[in-house]
Amino acid sequence: MGRTPLRVWATPTLHAPPRAAPPQVVQRQLSSEERVDKKDDSPVTVADYGAQAIVAWSLQRSDPSSRLSMVAEEDSAELSSPAGRPMLERITQLINSVLADAGEAAQLSPEEVLGLIDLGGSQGGPTGRHWVLDPIDGTRGFVGMRQYSVCLGMIQDGEVVLGVLGCPNLPQGSVADDDGGDGAAARCGQEGVGCLFSAHRGAGAFATPLWDDAAAPVRIVVADVADPGGARFMESVESRHSSHSTTAAVARELGVTLPPLRMDSQVKYGLLSRGCASIFMRFPPPSYREKIWDHAAGFVIVEEAGGRVTDAGGVRLDFSRGRYLQLDRGIIAAPPALHDQLVAAAAKVAPPAPAAAP
Ligand SMILES: Nc1ncnc2c1ncn2[C@@H]1O[C@H](COP(=O)(O)O)[C@@H](OP(=O)(O)O)[C@H]1O
Ligand SMILES: [Mg+2]
Ligand SMILES: [Mg+2]
Ligand SMILES: [Mg+2]
């Protein structure tokens, strides 16, 4: 890849603190016309669509000779109708201002933006190369002025081999409880806030300040914690995404005494990889099907930082089966010394549903 797509939104001249960076400006100034609720009742904003189009544009440009396969969250259905036209025009305007600010000559039409968004419709699968994009993960966090991340992974023949997480509101050092809530808004745009996590399979995981192209990436590793008494666990802010009562029960069973650190989005995988917390648990409603873009980038980053990411039954996540993950109950990620204990605790507290009668 000639240029990192996420850097389109992160050149030093554009983003030197204290000036707020474009995604942060969009987050702060988001109006009710700039977000809609999708058919599944989840929100999507001009930033989700804009980031998907701009990453698709950048990936396509980096390798024009090959056909891009991208498994991404958003599609153009809502924007293609007459009712979606004002939002499409706003997205196009945003993209074109980002491109111009980054010194790019290209300017896109609304129709080109629709086409770029729909490049994300690939089904993925066990063979070939597939980019996996969640243009804004944690949209509820984005709308609520909390944490969110831009997540790009690459699958090669069924294995996630590359992952990048852009986390504009995440402090580069230690995090406080309120960084998952009001603290994110208070510290957004300040010096020392904004992290980029990355990993290449076999080459380790790294963190670097998001707005500083000159900063050298620093190798990161998961915390070497074997005693649950000293472990901190992370979960979603949104209890509708992951049951807070189930995670609390598993933590109790395991002997975890510290309260949970609640954060939106895949920043949780970044924090686990950096050793800021040592456990991540996710127990969605039984009928919910997890999507690969919600986990691909974080998965390779945690593994390359020395951690394990499995379903609640201890089976490593499998990204080779298309757009969805097939999971037993939920997701558990931790350093190896804690991981087996967690799976055992989950089996006691939230055992797998009995197999249906034939
Ligand atoms: N009912 C549900 N159960 C579990 N996950 C859900 C859900 N509704 C939405 N999600 C997913 O939870 C993701 C956010 O995770 P988290 O809770 O860790 O912040 C959302 O990503 P998007 O914000 O990209 O849509 C969405 O894919
Ligand atoms: Mg979404
Ligand atoms: Mg997501
Ligand atoms: Mg998303």
From TrEMBL:
GO biological process, any: sulfate assimilation
CDD domains referenced in this protein's UniProt entry, alphabetically: PAP_phosphatase
Binding site for Mg(2+): E73, D134, I136, D137, D294
Cofactor: Mg(2+)
Enzyme's top EC category: hydrolase
Record carries keyword tRNA processing: no
Keyword Hydrolase: yes
Family (UniProt): Belongs to the inositol monophosphatase superfamily.
Protein name as catalogued: 3'(2'),5'-bisphosphate nucleotidase
Annotated catalysed reactions: adenosine 2',5'-bisphosphate + H2O = AMP + phosphate; 3'-phosphoadenylyl sulfate + H2O = adenosine 5'-phosphosulfate + phosphate; adenosine 3',5'-bisphosphate + H2O = AMP + phosphate
